[in-house]
Amino acid sequence: MVHAQCAAPALPTRNVTCADRPTWAREDTCAASLLNYARYVQEHYIRDAIGSPLLPSSLMPQHAVIICEECFHAVSKLTFKIYLVRPSLMFESETIAALYSGNEKFAQGLQTYLLSRDYSNLKSEFQLGNGKIKVDCIENQPEVDVSLGQHLFLTAGDLFLRKKTG
Fold this sequence. Notes:
single chain; 166 residues; 2 domains; six-stranded mixed β-sheet; two-stranded antiparallel sheet; 6 helices; 37% helix; elongated
């Protein structure tokens, strides 16, 4: 995922984000509409070029791992940073809690377990299970069936695209 940060030097900044490989953007209030417009107009090009859409940084999870960043100056009078981020699981906390009848401690335990798993292996397990896996190895927690697109997404981009398409 790639993260882009855009800011005019004298103005306060706020955050913006990209998908399969997380791409995140940070923008100032004046540049926000310009960056959002450029992101919208160039969405297909960006997705084809880097393998994922450019996402608002507000979607970047706290557990995201930044691989590298690059700063661009005076591009269409904007300064911005692009962050390349490892794919990160994105959770639907409410639906995970519902697996455990609202027990937040169990829901947090499941999220911690899934985050501790090797990303490639977890992705393969979901593919083999047609988008579902059974988690029955967390001590003192009941087993649950976890579904992609319902309980979690493999990337912020997957979540972003799902919410965008409804």
